[in-house]
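## tool: complex_structure
## caller: assistant
## args:
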Amino acid sequence: MDSLRFFLPTTIESGANCVRLAAERWVCGNKALLVTGHGGAAASGALADVQTALEARGVAWTLFDGISANPDADQVYAGVARAKEEGCDFVVGIGGGSPLDAAKAIAWAVAMDVPQERFFRMRPEPEDKALPIVAIPTTCGTGSEVTPYSIITDHHAKTKKNVSGPSLFPRTALLDARYLSSLPPAVLCDTALDALSHAIEGAYSPRCSRFTEMMALEAVHTIVPELVRMAHGVFVNLAQLQYAATVAGVVIAQTGTGLVHAMGYPLTYYKGIPHGRANGILLAGYLDFMVRPCAALTERILEAAHLTSGEELHGLVDALLDTMGTTPEAPSEDELMRYTREPLRLELVRRYRTMPSPEEVMDIYRTGF
Ligand SMILES: [Fe+2]
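## result:
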């Protein structure tokens, strides 16, 4: 048997009304810091459910709604200050990946008293503590509710940094698919593409065991038919998408992400292309690149996706971009050359099963546009 290493300390509770029905299991302190963005947590109904559940158990809370897309350290530290002022002893992140990631970073920075100027240099150590984290996703993409990762923008380095460690795993993830129903279609699509990318990159990771691959293929198998429905503008099964996004999150919690994410970050940072859409644009070229070193695995991924080639995936992503009414601006060759340096940085090499040359990275970018 292949070597197997699998770690997931997060309890997952799912189903309609699980925030209220499972309150006795997830409420874990005397005062909660509720970390949200500017609208999704309230619009989805999740924020009200959390407040009701806390009040029913006599637990105090304070709302910190200062998290935007691609949160930076200033936002994290505004949350840290609020948690300390208010004496919060657990953190509830509600929303898409940004509030969830920020909630995790806040929980670690408060518990370890990390000074802001050392935030990007002090990596969370395995023995570090964090305030208990409860994660309630209102999108279906990042999988942040079941990962130890917190992606925070570092303006100094002009990219996103991954602040991660075992203490950043949420204690509980609460999945209620009703919260997805208020999502704008473009956000639903972008986040589903992110989840698909997690599953595919996870499958190709050198750290992927047979056990984890089984989950990656399950996520691919579940997400792609929903993307096809989105492209045709017909009913999408939100519970299926939420389930698959969490399964894909469990995958990257074991494997990390790979080349597509590393290549997607510059597209988000410099071109403002949403994270999942940036990954989706790159996926077909990535599959084409991986066919040669990993033919059998690529076949299993395509089979799970009900697709015959990377080209067919490219067609699906194009159709999704059409339904969103958006054509991302293609970067110039000079820009692509600049972006290519990022994923090839030495520290990332071990994350790729096959190391691409700069020209191969450029080709994956070009295939996407
Ligand atoms: Fe992602």
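## assistant note: The chain is about 50% helix and 10% strand. The first strand starts at residue 11 and ends at 14. Handing back to user.
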